[in-house]
Specification:
The complex is a heterotrimer of chains A (271), B (422) and C (324). Chain B contains 18 helices and eleven strands. With 422 residues, chain B is an alpha/beta fold. In chain B, helix 14 crosses helix 15 and helix 17 (383-399) packs antiparallel against helix 18 (405-420). Chain B starts with a helix and ends with a helix. Chain C contains 16 helices and no strands. Classes of the chains: A mainly alpha (271), B alpha/beta (422), C mainly alpha (324). Chains A and B meet through helix 3, helix 5 and helix 12 of A and helix 1, helix 3 and helix 11 of B.
Chain lengths: 271, 422, 324
């Protein structure tokens, strides 16, 4: 049994290594000096490497990282506040027209991002949300909310009705039931939705580019553009930015992976 | 088990809160407040918005400081926003539609006619900019139907960089490369010693058209007839190079930067690229010759470089101040400093003389810019983008072998004509 | 009060038909209305959110496609009504057929591979060997990267001359391939990159689906003598059908929208070899120096219609699944 486990681990490591090879390549490019950028054949390891990309990034990009983090956390908050109650209602409270709402949420995910971005420009201009962090938080949440409602609905429909009725008998209203029973029990769904929302907000570029280009606070995806001039691009700095930007999110990932999605889609299975 | 888990969850939650607080502090301490860019225009005081496509210049760069200095001299505060050059056109259009145009917009020259035809730009009659000293061929991109809509910040163009070491090893005299035949012969000699011939950008974007135009014009072809025998000859030159291995297959997807990176590996004899690379070229010891025409002489080359424009505003009194800021940025010693930073050529004779006396190696570039043509010139205006898109598509088709040069260009001509006459 | 409501409801459930007086019926109706109000109270924020942030961009897109906008009328806002002529023009455009075919191939192949690989990996990681948790977390790293970076990295790796993939092919004695520049291979190149990017999503969802299957089912099957392969196909896979259906549907919706990867790697080229409807829509609106927003919006709407059609198919299939 133990031998089999090691054999599986070896395959697992190999498969993961193949999957992560492009990430390794990204790190490789970030350490490559400019004359070697287009060397044919390319260097597998950055011989004659340079830390120039990283020094530039660490001097310039930290504020952008801070903003990205803020936007990520804000998006998580907005997504949870909107999606969790909606998921609960669709799963347990059966509002009339709930089916139609589910369908509309599905359609909402089909709208191409550029269409959304152009529409938001007009709305934001009217409400003064252009070039603000809050504007980006709301825009990024539109990526995550429909999906979040889907996950919450599927998960919360699995909650045993007896649990909710017990709360009712004790005199709890719907909001109390939601806050003190449903949310704690749905911890895994909360973590999953938070993870998706954070990652989607972290890597968003289109909304940031259209709606926050003139802002004082810009996320890291726009910070990369400091190295993409109108005639020249500094690729080692660009890749270094990406590497540095990935680290906080990777840490979050490893911390949260145990909670992710355990039984989240169970509602969809048990019919 | 549950208690342990919830304690862990609480720890993670606390960690996240701490991180969030840290993020907020870092952001607050670093940059100023981000407010929307509404322009309160008045002759004395107020904030003017300035958009340019130079995100590589941060707020502390000499360019940004020059911009705010010119603003102060005109009596206003300038708020500068740098956009990625490919996104700037869209931003300008969206802003114009919502009445949110910036006071001054620095934009790539072939886009000027697009924005002017959309009614977004003011002409010199309205904004009072003076254009007298600027070379006519460089100003041409901003002239639509006899009206001038902008002032160039500088001019750049294309030439053939070469690696002297490789040419010496291949026993090729750079001075002998004066026509297509002699260039191809040189490439053959370079390939014979195991090096690579030439690299350029043949990508399906405006950069690809830009790089193709010297060969297109050098064969005597005209943008109104992209399926002429001369045009086919130019495209055949490129496709033959790729087929014979003188140019790498990657030119089909190369941007000008990628092509330059290939040249920088030191494996290429020739690289077609622009004025903006001249500092890097000097660092690697590369030199420059003009792009040869088909049968001799220098091929006409397209003008690159951005234009200062003054978009239409509700408050027309702001044009005078905007014009003052533009004049400050585009004349005297300011423009020479700026163009040296950007690696562009000054669009006035006086400025060019100043540049050449400081750096004599620029004389070949000044000569190239002197014979350059505007892409939207000859009254092509907004027809140019349509033709250009079909041209780069045809070039891609032929380069990748999907179609022969003749059929690709014929398809391009009919598609362009159909789109123009729609 | 609450207990009374509970008793009344249970009375109804237990079919206590005799004691149905008018006041209790009215109380029940009031209770139902209150329950509906509460239910709607919980979804009202999302409904308002949908109306404000999704309805408006969608409306603008439809408006752009039903009028013929030129650049100046885009600025001023008064464009003539064009009916369905934009749609007719789009269907007759020579780029439409290749774009449609490419979209179909790209979508089907992408979700097939993403799903299969995601499911395979989920089953593999479910064996809970040493390090499986950390390795599974590492699999999500491609998701962290901004698409600009992942697409650029793949571009670099697949470069005809300086790419590592071609170096590897040459090292094992194969011919190098012009991944991004050959009309034959461009679509394959963007497919590879897109599949790579989509694997983490499928892995997470399918893994959670596996976790929700009660373990005693597996034990019972093992006792009955079923081997691993049989266990998977006869038990696991059928039980995963609802999760698979939603994963495939979401995969379809997201893949139809895919734009950044293809744009950064090939911009839809060479010629139309890797142009999909999403790419074409962007090309029309933002890819040239002279934007054509009406046509771009039209192609965008065609994309949405296709997605809606598949969503309806899914709903039909799911309701049939529920009734069996």
């Amino acid at each position: 049994m133990k031998r089999r486990s090691w054999w599986l681990t070896a395959i697992g490591v190999l498969v993961t290594a193949v999957m992560l090879f492009p990430v390794y390549w990204m790190i490789n490019v970030s350490l490559t000096s400019t004359p070697d950028m287009r060397k044919s054949p390319p260097n597998l390891i950055p011989i004659d490497g340079t830390l120039q990309g990283y020094t530039v990034v660490l001097h310039q990009q930290l504020p952008y990282l801070g903003t990205s983090l803020l936007i990520g956390l804000g998006t998580v908050a907005v997504t949870l506040v909107l999606a969790a109650p909606a998921g609960y209602s669709l799963a347990k409270l059966h509002p009339r027209g709930g089916g139609a709402l589910s369908f509309v949420l599905l359609i909402a995910q089909m709208i191409p991002a550029i269409v959304m971005a152009m529409g938001f420009y007009v709305i934001y201009l009217k409400f003064g949300l252009l070039n603000t962090v809050w504007g980006l938080i709301i825009a990024d949440s539109t990526i995550a909310v429909p999906f979040g409602v889907l996950i919450f609905t599927a998960f919360m429909s699995r909650i045993p009705n007896e649990l909710l009725q017990a709360a009712r008998i004790d005199g709890a209203g719907a909001m109390r039931t939601f806050l003190s029973i449903v949310v704690p029990v749905s911890r895994n769904a909360v973590v999953t939705v938070s993870l998706f929302a954070f990652l989607w907000a972290w890597s968003d570029f289109l909304f940031a580019n259209t709606l926050d280009n003139g802002g004082g606070h810009q996320p890291i995806t726009l910070g990369i553009y400091a190295y993409i001039g109108n005639n020249n691009q500094q690729w080692n700095a660009i890749m270094a930015t990406a590497v540095v930007a990935s680290i906080p999110a990777a840490v979050l990932l490893v911390l949260a992976q145990r909670y992710v999605a355990a039984g989240v889609t169970s509602g969809a299975v048990k019919d | 088990m549950t208690v342990q888990r919830s304690r862990k969850a609480r720890t993670i939650g606390a960690a996240l809160l701490a991180v969030g607080a840290l993020a907020a502090t870092v952001t607050a301490c670093s940059s100023g407040s981000g407010s929307s860019s509404a322009s309160t225009a008045s002759a004395s005081g107020g904030t003017y918005t300035f958009w340019d496509p130079y995100p590589q210049y941060s707020a502390s760069s000499p360019w940004a400081q020059l911009v705010s200095k010119c603003g102060t001299e005109a009596g206003v505060t300038v708020k500068r926003t740098a956009y990625d050059t490919t996104a700037l056109t869209t931003q300008a259009l969206l802003a114009g539609q919502q009445g949110n145009s910036p006071n001054i917009l620095l934009i790539d020259n072939p886009v000027v006619s697009t924005l002017a035809s959309a009614g977004l730009l003011t002409a010199t009659a309205q904004n009072g900019l003076s254009t007298g000293e600027i070379a006519a061929n460089i100003l041409d991109a901003g002239v639509i139907n006899g009206k001038t809509y902008g002032v160039p910040i500088g001019a750049n163009t294309l030439a053939l960089y070469y690696n002297p070491k490789i040419l010496a090893a291949a026993k090729v005299n750079p001075a002998s490369v004066t026509s297509w035949a002699t260039l191809t012969a040189a490439l053959a000699k370079v390939k014979a010693i195991g090096k690579k011939g030439i690299t350029f950008s043949g990508i399906n974007t405006e950069e690809g058209s830009f790089q193709f135009l010297p060969w297109f014009w050098g064969a005597g072809a005209n943008l109104t007839n992209v399926d002429s025998p001369q045009a086919i000859a130019a495209l055949t030159l490129w496709t033959t190079w790729i087929k014979d291995g003188y140019a790498p297959n990657s030119v089909i997807q190369d941007t000008q930067t990628t092509s330059w990176q290939e040249f920088q590996t030191g494996q290429f004899a020739f690289g077609e690229n622009g004025t903006w690379q001249k500092t890097l070229a000097a660092q690697m010891g590369a030199k420059v010759i003009a792009i040869p025409g088909e049968n001799g002489g220098s091929a006409p080359v397209p003008t690159g470089g951005e234009f200062f424009t003054i978009p239409v505003q509700k408050n027309t009194a702001s044009y005078a101040t905007s014009a003052k800021i533009v004049s400050c940025l585009s004349s005297g010693s300011n423009i020479v400093t700026t163009d040296n930073t950007l690696n562009y050529i000054v669009p006035t004779q006086a400025g060019q003389q100043a540049q050449v006396s400081a750096d004599p190696s620029l004389s070949s570039w000044v000569a190239a810019v002197g014979v350059a043509k505007a892409r939207t010139g000859a009254n092509l205006g907004t027809k140019y983008p349509i033709i250009s898109e079909q041209l780069w598509t045809a070039v891609q088709k032929a380069e990748s072998g999907a179609a022969s040069p003749a059929s690709a260009l014929a398809a391009a001509q009919s598609a362009a004509t159909a789109a123009i006459n729609k | 009060m609450t207990a009374e409501r509970f008793k009344t409801r249970s009375a109804v459930r237990h079919g206590d038909g005799a004691a149905q007086s008018a006041p209790s019926r009215a109380r029940r109706a009031r209770a139902r209305r209150r329950a509906q109000l509460t239910a709607w109270g919980f979804i009202l924020p999302v409904v308002a959110y949908l109306g404000l942030f999704y309805a408006y961009p969608l409306y603008r897109n439809i408006d752009l496609s039903l009028r013929s906008y030129t650049l100046s009328s885009f600025i001023t806002g008064d464009a003539p009504f064009a009916g369905l002529s934009n749609y007719v023009n789009v269907f007759h455009n020579p780029t439409f057929a290749p774009a449609l075919v490419n979209t179909a191939i790209f979508t089907v192949v992408s979700i097939a591979f993403q799903f299969a690989i995601g499911l395979g990996l989920a089953v593999f990681f479910f064996k809970m060997f040493r390090l499986s948790g950390i390795l599974r977390a590492l699999f999500l790293v491609p998701w962290l990267l901004p698409l600009l970076v992942s697409a650029s990295t793949w571009s670099w790796m697949l470069n005809s001359d300086s790419g590592i993939v071609n170096s590897f092919l040459q090292a094992v004695g194969l011919q190098p391939i012009d991944w991004l520049t050959s009309p034959k291979w461009a679509l394959v190149a963007v497919l590879i990159a897109n599949i790579w990017i989509g694997i983490p999503f499928n892995l997470v969802i399918m893994y959670s689906g596996l976790q929700s299957i009660a373990p005693d089912i597996f034990e019972a099957a093992a006792i009955d003598g079923a081997n691993g392969w049989q266990r998977f196909w006869r038990i696991t896979f059928p039980l995963l059908r609802p999760v698979s259906a939603i994963t495939l549907l979401l995969g379809l919706v997201y893949t139809l929208k895919v734009f950044d990867i293809i744009w950064i790697m090939t911009r839809g080229g060479p010629a139309t070899a890797s142009t999909t409807l999403a790419i074409w829509s962007y090309q029309l609106g933002f890819g040239s120096l002279l934007p054509d927003f009406s046509s771009a919006a039209t192609v965008g709407n065609v994309l949405i219609f296709i997605a809606v059609a598949f969503a309806l198919v899914y709903i039909r299939a799911r309701s049939r699944l529920e009734t069996t």
